[in-house]
Specification:
about 180 residues, mainly beta, ten-stranded antiparallel sheet, three-stranded antiparallel sheet, 1 helix, elongated
Amino acid sequence: MRYLKTLTMLVVTAAALTAFAGTASATITSGGSAYTGEIVATSTNSELDGTIDVRCDHSSLAGSTTAGATTFAVTSLTFSECTADTYTAIKNGSLRFDSNGTIFWEGTELTVQLHRVVFGFPITTHCIYATSGTDIATLAEGTDQINLIGTNIPQKATDSGCGSNAQWTGSYTIVKPGALTID
């Protein structure tokens, strides 16, 4: 349950970065000007729900963008205050924004290891979820909020107890630069 929630937090974070990336048809602006520089977003409420539910109390996403960029490379994606389960970003991927505020996440792989005790024996279930141009979030226009839309993130071939996909929900707050607009 926590792994899915952790994955959700990652997705939300990635979504935040995507909002900053932009596409050829969209320009990310802050304060009325095209934005160039570091983008940082944090979450305290993301969840990954599916066969396994994961929640982490904190997640952060960081990267940078240049004026006119069509994608935003995620340079840092972290999760903390999770359950005893383990979540790791294998590949951070990149985010892309379209002109209507939809955020797409490309090339991200998240691995979750669920640690349980069944009949007195420790059992670990390993799950990997991957994005491929997945529409994951929306930017609340002119605000500092990125909202995950609960899109299914498909599972790669890993343990059978993982479920074929997981839904990420929650939101991220853009702490740097703050409110964004897509023009």
